[in-house]
Design a protein that fits this description.
alpha+beta, 2 domains, six-stranded mixed beta sheet, Ice-binding_C, PEP-CTERM sorting domain-containing protein
Length: 241
Amino acid sequence: MFSLLSRIRKLNTTALLTGVFILGASLHAQSYNIDLGSHYTEPPNSFGGSANQPGVWNRVDTTGTTALVDLNNLSAGATVEVLVPDGGLYGFYGNEVISDQDLLQSDRFNSPSSAAWSIEVFGLSNGLYDIYVYSSLSTGTFTLQGQPADAISGYSPASLGHGSAGSPTFGLFENIAVTDGSLSFFQTNTELSGFTSVAGLQIVAASAVPEPSSYAALAGLAVMGFVAQRRRGRRETYPAA
């Protein structure tokens, strides 16, 4: 009798631990640091930016698609696609780089007047993210996930620090929902002169949504635990022999 009850308790414990593992794995969401521009090297891993998120910085120094690694230099299949017509990879402030923040902001992607650029990140886990967007100057209209910046709840335009390259323009977007594995940024320069630019991104996982398969696995474990608990209850109510 004792041996059987012990096995049942072990089964319950194993099921619980397995459920925690499944849920934890399914809730994993990636965070990324991205430095856009070709003139300077990326910031060191110790630099956390305004998100206070140290880790590997992905240097994106060309248009088109670039594979991303996470903060620990591991690949989870995410990519970033940058389209910048007529602009390119521009170095700001010459060689006057005095801080890690300058390494991030002093080179950037830009487009001249009446042009537009877009950045799309693919391969993200679905869930909520805080998005930090760094820029040195901008005279255009910016959208995130198809919504104008000023219309997005959780938008903080003056929340970021800056180096000698100038103050950021876009700021922080909190609790942005990713439902199809992608983030989309788009900016159109609506001015007759000047440039629109973006220097970097920090994508910070706020929470993730479990996959449907994870719910099914957890439901199965719950049934196993319920059956085992009922068996244990029945065994314990029998009179001792």
